[in-house]
């Protein structure tokens, strides 16, 4: 046989190397007698399938409770898969019950640490390239079993020896696997001739399995495994429950209003739910909880490594100063949130303010009588849920199981019942400037009606069901509660509003601690003018906003009070107009300090304000005393003005005297006249000074009398 060319032979050898290397790594994994070698279990266990979801409870705060049930036999490990973001809620809520007398010993889950951190305490590594040679080089001393053809050898690894060979003038590196056999012989084996290699050292085998699991799980960063370790005997039932984040469940209603007054309105409610998971829900018991429980998120999944101080020996020989800064040990932050009820299903009410409604097309009329829409709904769809009180919350529990494929949504009927209520006209200015066709519903069922859209139908034996509009139930209605739900704009009745405000005269005036307190009323009056242009009598409910600080005086009492509104009820006869007035009143007060009051203000209040006789006598006495004060102030002011004028004359005389020549007889005579005038000015200024001092004393005395009179009077 002719010898093959060099390149072909080299390529064949490389292919054999890759094949044997991959086969060896595969055999290493398959040769592991413990499939859970990478976990913390103390003994081998039978891996079971994930228990099926049998119960789901959906809430209004963005969480869902899942319950799984299944069967295990003997010692077993249950494996569940979750998304990374679900692990936070899972670790705060997961529980497991072995109903057959067994025990749930530990719950293991994939760490969120990076690969380097997870491999930190494992001494072996799987290299990216040359996996077999570099890996075996790390296992010096490990006990192994190798097969070469039909021969088997056991011993401890001494190492991997590279051997360079020349083939067709090319250097090729081959590897010898050096083994210290159980007989004490050192034997080299051609690595490419070894058909299998098995690790006999159990700890290293487990470490290798753990390393490979870590590398594999790192490829699926959004998937984490949770393993529950079950210990027991025989076949047993297992129950597992947990909470994870889920879309809220929503509600929508159909309300059928029958003709005539004998039949009651019929309410048909649906629960809308979604399955965003990667698992089909098959024959699941569903519950829909109404209410808004508190919920928060705490990240127990992310590993937390506090910063610790590093202390060298030199720092404690001798010990000098503080060893560490306490601020380095600040606690990890936690988030807390009260999830409010979602408004995802609310619809914008702008169409009401614009006077628009959205009725569906009217079906063509049939001259023959046919079953009512209520009767047809009852025969076609029945409620699949029953109401149950759950503590302070209310739950709709499904009567039969529900199936929903993954990433699909569904509607489940939860209410098919008659309710109390009647059609009315409704007005609230912040919803619509016009009257609205509405339904005043009373929750006469034993269920809690959750918020959601309501589609209204009129049921006729001749025409069948006709959609007349859409409304919104904005608050949850427990049994017995009422709510007005508008669904269309009324075109046959109108409403106009006018407002005016006025201040009433002072009705109370009192003196308290030297303060004159005057009280009067401020009145707000709103007039509603309603006109009924139709041939039907109408009942109107009107919501009037409460004004801060004001109390209702007309009418004396509303039909009922709701948050920030008075609700009034009135009858609007066919073809008639009604004018409805609402008055609100607020008491206001003004104050004047009597020490600062003027005589003009005193005269006004003596003639206009409703004062007591004691207060009137006080004001009269104050007026008299203040008249004396005014007179003394006038005397003081006039003396002060004259004194200022004389001072100016005095300065002028002295300036003129300084300009005169005393050696001139004429100027000397003139100087003597100035001296005489200065003497008279000084005498008058001294007299004025005495007058001002006397006047100031009288003013002080009068001010004291005023203060004494004011402080000595008080009205209870």
Supply the key terms.
8-stranded mixed β-sheet; 716 residues; single chain; 6-stranded mixed β-sheet; alpha+beta; 33 strands
Describe this structure in words.
By secondary structure, the chain is an alpha+beta fold. Among the domains are: 250-294 and 339-488, no CATH class; 494-594, no CATH class; 599-711. It is 25% helix and 38% strand. It is built from 10 helices and 33 strands. Strands 2, 3, 5, 13, 16, 17, 18 and 19 form an 8-stranded mixed β-sheet that branches. Strand 7 (143-148) and strand 8 (151-167) form a beta hairpin. Helix 8 packs antiparallel against helix 9 (613-659) and helix 9 runs antiparallel to helix 10 (665-711). The chain is flat, with a radius of gyration of 49 Å.
Strand count, sense and barrel status of the largest sheet are: 8 strands, mixed
Oligomeric category: single chain
| Spatial extent as radius of gyration | 49 Å
What percentage of the residues does DSSP assign to strands (E)?
35-45%
Fraction in helix: 10-25%
How many helices? 10
In the predicted model, the low-confidence regions spanning at least 5 consecutive residues are 1-44, 316-367
**Average pLDDT, all residues:** 78
Q: In terms of structural class, how would the helical and strand content be classed?
A: alpha+beta
- The count of DSSP E runs of length 2 or more, i.e. the number of strands, is 33
Overall 3D form: flat
Distance between the termini: 134 Å
């Amino acid at each position: 046989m002719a010898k093959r060319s060099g390149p072909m032979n080299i390529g064949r050898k490389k292919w054999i190397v890759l094949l044997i290397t991959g086969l060896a790594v595969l055999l290493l994994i398959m040769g592991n007698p413990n499939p859970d070698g990478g976990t913390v279990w103390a003994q081998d266990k039978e891996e079971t399938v994930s228990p099926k979801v049998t119960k789901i409870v959906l809430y209004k705060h963005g969480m869902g409770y899942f319950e799984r049930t299944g069967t295990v036999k003997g010692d077993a490990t249950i494996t569940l898969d979750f998304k990374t973001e679900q692990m936070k809620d899972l670790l705060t809520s997961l529980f497991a019950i072995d109903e057959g007398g067994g025990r749930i010993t530990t719950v293991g889950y994939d760490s969120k640490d990076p690969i380097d951190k997870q491999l930190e305490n494992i001494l072996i590594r799987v290299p990216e390239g040359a996996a077999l040679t570099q890996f075996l080089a790390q296992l010096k001393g490990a006990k192994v079993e190798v097969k070469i053809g039909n021969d088997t050898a056991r011993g401890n690894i001494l190492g991997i020896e590279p051997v360079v060979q020349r083939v067709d003038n090319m250097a090729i590196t081959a590897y010898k696997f050096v083994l210290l056999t159980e007989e004490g012989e050192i034997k080299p084996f051609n690595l490419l001739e070894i058909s299998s290699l098995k690790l006999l050292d159990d700890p290293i085998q487990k470490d290798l399995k753990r390393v490979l699991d870590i590398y594999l799980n790192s490829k699926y960063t959004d998937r984490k495994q949770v393993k529950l370790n079950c210990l027991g005997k025989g076949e047993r039932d297992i129950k597992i429950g947990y909470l994870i984040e889920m879309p809220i469940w929503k509600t929508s209603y159909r309300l059928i209003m029958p003709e005539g007054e004998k039949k009651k309105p019929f309410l048909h409610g649906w629960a809308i739910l979604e399955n965003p998971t990667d698992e089909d829900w098959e024959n699941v018991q569903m519950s829909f909880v109404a209410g808004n429980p508190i919920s928060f998120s705490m990240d127990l999944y992310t590993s937390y490594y506090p910063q610790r101080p590093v202390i060298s020996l030199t720092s404690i020989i001798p010990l000098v100063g503080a060893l560490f800064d306490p601020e380095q040990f600040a606690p990890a932050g936690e988030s807390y949130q009260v999830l409010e009820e979602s408004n995802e299903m609310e619809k914008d009410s702008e169409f009401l303010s614009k006077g628009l409604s959205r009725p569906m097309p009217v079906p063509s009329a049939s001259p023959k009588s046919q079953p009512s829409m209520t009767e047809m709904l009852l025969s076609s769809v029945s409620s699949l849920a029953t109401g149950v009180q759950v503590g302070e919350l209310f739950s709709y529990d499904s009567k039969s199981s529900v199936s929903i494929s993954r990433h699909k949504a569904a509607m489940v009927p939860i209410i098919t019942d008659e309710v109390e209520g009647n059609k009315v006209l409704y007005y609230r200015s912040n919803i619509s400037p016009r009257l609205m066709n509405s339904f005043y519903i009373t929750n006469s069922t034993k269920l809690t009606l959750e918020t959601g859209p309501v589609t209204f139908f009129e049921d006729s034996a001749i025409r069948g069901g006709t959609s007349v509009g859409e409304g919104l139930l904005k608050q949850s209605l427990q049994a017995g509660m009422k709510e007005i739900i508008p669904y269309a704009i009324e075109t046959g009745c109108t409403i106009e509003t006018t407002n005016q405000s006025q201040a009433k005269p002072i009705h109370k005036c009192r003196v308290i601690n030297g303060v004159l307190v005057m009280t009067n009323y401020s009145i707000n009056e709103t007039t509603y003018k309603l006109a009924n242009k139709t041939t039907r009598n109408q009942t109107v409910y009107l919501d009037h906003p409460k004004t801060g600080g004001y109390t209702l005086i007309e009418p004396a009492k509303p039909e009922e009070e709701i948050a920030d509104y008075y609700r009034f009820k009135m009858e609007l006869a066919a073809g008639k107009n009604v004018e409805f007035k609402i008055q609100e009143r607020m008491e206001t007060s003004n104050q004047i300090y009597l020490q600062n009051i003027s005589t003009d203000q005193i005269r006004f209040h003596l003639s206009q304000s409703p004062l007591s006789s004691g207060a009137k006598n006080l004001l009269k006495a104050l007026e008299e005393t203040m008249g004396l004060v005014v007179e003394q102030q006038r005397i003081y002011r006039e003396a002060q003005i004259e004194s200022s004028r004389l001072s100016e004359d005095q300065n002028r005389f002295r300036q003129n005297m300084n300009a005169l020549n005393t050696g001139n007889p004429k100027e000397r005579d003139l100087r003597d006249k100035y001296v005489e005038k200065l003497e008279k000015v000084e005498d008058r200024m001294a007299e004025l000074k005495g007058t001002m001092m006397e006047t100031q004393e009288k003013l002080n005395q009068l001010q004291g009398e005023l203060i004494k009179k004011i402080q000595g009077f008080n009205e209870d």
